[in-house]
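Posted in: Structural Biology > Protein-Ligand Complexes

Title: Requesting predicted complex, WTA in pocket

I'd be grateful if someone could produce the 3D structure tokens for the following input. Sequence and ligand are given below.
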Amino acid sequence: MTVDWSISFDEKIMPKDLPNAATVEDYIKFHKTSVKGYREFWAKLAGELDWFRKWDKVLDDSNPPFYKWFAGGELNASYLCLDRHVKTERKNKVAIIWEGEPMENGKPKEVRKLTYSDLYREVNRVAYMLKNKYGVGKGDVVGIYLPMIPELPIFMLAAARLGAMFCVVFSGFSADAIAERMNDAEAKILITADGAWRGGKVLDLKSIVDQALEKTKTVKSVVVVNRTNNKVSMKGGRDGTFEELMKGIPANAHVEPERVKSESPLYVLYTSGTTGKPKGQVHDVGGYMTLLHATMKWVFDIKDQDVYWCMADIGWVTGHSYIVFGPLMEGATEVMYEGLPVFPEQNRWASIIERYGVNIFYTSPTAIRGWIKGGEQWVKMHDTSTVRLMHSVGEPINPEAFRWLFKHVGRETVPFGSTWWMTETGGIMISHTPGLMMVPMKAGTNGLPIPGIDAEVVDESGKPQKASERGFLVIRNPWPGMPLTIFKDPDRYKEVYFSKFPNAFYAGDYAVRDPDGYFWVLGRADEVIKVAGHRLGTYELESALMQHKSVAESAVVGVPDDIKGEIPVAFVILRQGFKPSEELKAELKDTVRKAVGPVASLKDVIFVSKLPKTRSAKIMRRVVKAVAIGKPPGDTTTLDDEASVEEVKSAYAQLSGELEKGRKKP
Ligand code: WTA
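-- Reply #1 --
Done. Output follows.
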């Protein structure tokens, strides 16, 4: 658990005149009905999508936990996001307002506005190119390693149009991370850019890709989009520039959207979990799009005249669902911003809200904490009064961060929530639903499960936990948008999510329910670290350390950080012949950054001679973490390992002693 803040279960914040205001009792009543008849409930929502063929069965549950939603139905995600809009008066509506990071004379140097017709045309042309030049089609995987430029959603939609899967790798990941994902996904083509703008600097994406491809077997072709005019080397027979490849493609090229089965895969997205290598979460088409449709309505209350801005990066699930497929399916106008929200100054994000008159704003606790530190004067420079609804995502929101944004952008009047969900769930699961029924807010809560979602907090034995007591978050019924499986590893899917508690999906989070029934997700119960909302597994970080010749063994834990929520610290046992030193520390930090990517920056490396282990030789992470934080582990948290309180105490004392010794002689 990461954040230590005082929350108040009793506080109720409900500005006057909020549309859809509801009492908790009324919401719970409605929610119960939706869960009871959840199949019919979701079927009604799915009916609001455009299907080429209607489903035979709402839910095929013949082989749990592998569920097929809207089995037998046929549709296409790119059709839903494009074709259905260009047939209407929406065709000239702006779909994406893209703002590049570089500034000139106090203004963004580049802004691109793509209408739904523009987007339709570009996606068709790119699909045409992928199909005719590379033979991309059903059964193929298109790898994508692009920064936040319009070509990123365009390639995703083009792959979806062809019925191919895509696999996006976040542009802050390293060559090794790309290679691992491309190999597992068996991608045959990789789309990248010559560079990416980040904080005023150009990241050399192409050379990272070149390194990755030395370790990749399946990728035979690379498409390079020019973003930064970075000089890159091109490998003959393998690499092509996007501009060249698109030259001969007619402006009105049309590719018929493939009729894909509802239960077929749309994409695979890798995410960190308990142990082992990243897991490829596979999402379907019909269920996933249905959940996005529902949550865009209920959670974001999206209306035709709105300007919507989700600040996430498309390399993570939030961007897949709530920058690409959700808002575009709803025909929204959205802002897509390329770079750092505080570049070149703290007010960049607020200036974007003002420039485009953003109405709906989706952000994160880490971003807000950064702005608090920067000072409110930066927000006050801009008119942000267009904002009528806000949500946060990625990690627990501390009440202070909630109150700050609620005051300085929300004018203490607009709905503001903290949406809980994860890569696995496909879309938002626990949230306020201002577009449907808006229950009072409380600073720091996630609210209640959305309609149709049967979430619960249970104790170690799987029974519902008492109110106000910490337990594990589970989801009982299947829901549209849940993963089809872990790519090529169905056993692992079953094991990780459906073995801890019978008949329930185990999310891996600690949570409490307060006496009103509100959920408060507290943080991960497993070995996942959330750094600035980004999900990193301790396994990946420890494997990275092992690549260094000096490391015999290591344990990485997350410690609280004022801005990033959590930040990793490594405990390292050195091999014979190596001595602790500041240089070695720096080298180890660098090794991790190179192996995983700039998202994985270790705060500290602590050299020890021993790590506390349980009798079955598992590292007692709770103890390591307690030592890193400098607080004894306490008696009550023996939930997650098999050690006795005494053993935990003595391990703590021993490791703390080592830490002290280490501090004295660096
Ligand atoms: C955490 C991100 C508290 C949680 C969409 C979850 C949250 C993990 C919240 C999934 C929130 C996400 N309040 N915790 N509003 N949103 N989390 O897969 O620990 O990157 O299990 O998906 O983020 O991270 P992921």
